[in-house]
Amino acid sequence: MPCYRCGHRSLTRDDVSGGLVCESCGTVQQFDNYQAATWGADGPQGVLIRVGCSGTGSVLSYRDKKIFEANKLIDDITFKLDLVGTKVSEIKSMINTITEGEFGVGDWFPVLIGACAYVVVRSDNKSLPIAEIGDVIGRDVHELGRMITRVVDHLDLKLPEFDIVTSFEKVLRNLSNSGRIDNDKVKRMREQGVFLIQCATKWFLTTGRRPLPIVAAVLVLVAELNGVPGMKIEEMARKVHAAVSTCKSRYRELLESIVKVAQALPWGKDVTVKNAVKNAPFVLRHMEMKLMAKHGREEHPGSAKFDLEKVVRQCLRKDVEYSIDEDVTKYDDSQYFEVQNGSSFNHMGVDDLDKLQLSHECLSMAYNKFLEEDGFGKYVEVTEKAQRRKRKRDLELHPTEWWNGKTELSKKLLLKQILDKDVGLNPMPPSFVNGLLAVESRRAKINAAKSRIRKIMHPCSADLNDSSEISILEDLHEDLHARRKRRKTQAKDIDWEDFVIETLLLHQVSVW
Which of 11, 134, 232, 295 is the most exposed place for a label (fewest CB within 10 A)? Predict the structure, then answer.
């Protein structure tokens, strides 16, 4: 059999493929290993097509292949989200319930997987940010949020509140596992971070806002306080999947709150946002001491304590030495040593002491002995030593001594418990304050617009009071804009909002 290309008869059979190959030109001969098509139970079988199957070389039906690919995608996304075990099973079960066992393919299916993963983790009171899921599946957080709402409504679920403390601990644990933070500083930074986050919650810095930027701000602050290098706000923003500008705003708000708390210190007037980090150890120590202070009647530092029962027994024994006929055991069992209403000798009143019928000589001797041995001199000496040691500690404050970590705010608390604590600052919510500023600014604009319209329509009725009122309102308007750090403008300048207000007033629309 000659080669169909060169005509030579030097053909050999290849051991691997089994086909004939020309040794002269190397051409593989056609139709050499042809096998005739056979008929099977499912129909005719060919080289590229098999009846009853989907895809090239597949033995699965379309539905089975769709479910297989869907489970494969679920495993891939959950692996990137560090979800294993029962969490993956719960996600698959939830998707199976929502899709009625059909699962699905297309661009919407990864969004559904991310939404179910978020719902499963949140239902277990754990932290999984939507931004992190959006980065994994490559979708917008708003699209993912809408899908989460649909899943919750469809399954009639009620998710718990977002746990910002758990989010902080998770990020700190990841930084510790990567070797960015020393092991001896992790516990200290965790306590300080939980303390500051719960203080920020009390100061309404997290109310109505995304919680992850405040996590980044607290991480940067505790890193600076503990001397951990390289913890920049931009890097922490990427760690928590938050905007850098928002994280910087939360960091500045946190420092401003620390400055307000620092006003209670003797040098509080000198504390500003620029040096707030240097003064933060003293502020945190002040907040801890305020939380640990006992609210109750304090004893005078110069008053000494003594055991009234011991003094009475000594006086009774002295009376026995003065040849009093009664025995001491009789006094021990007498009515004067009975505990009345569960109270002891130290809780007796003045009338009860008068009923003891002790001699003046015994009381005088007991009191003198108390002053000489266990009394005021020794107490004052110990108190003065303690005060000197305390003053020395206050003057020599080392970096390892300013944090105690034994307050309740260093541990995870409920919102009601956080709001009941006193840390030296009880501000109004920033949204409420901004709302008041917006209302005052709008009121000033409306009054100024009315005055301008009245001055034009009725120029004869314009007097000095109107001009003074306009100037006052314009000054207030300028002050409000300055507080919001807008561009400085002159009080007589008019912007687009003023034109809108004037148009509405001229059409007799109620703008207030």
Answer: 295
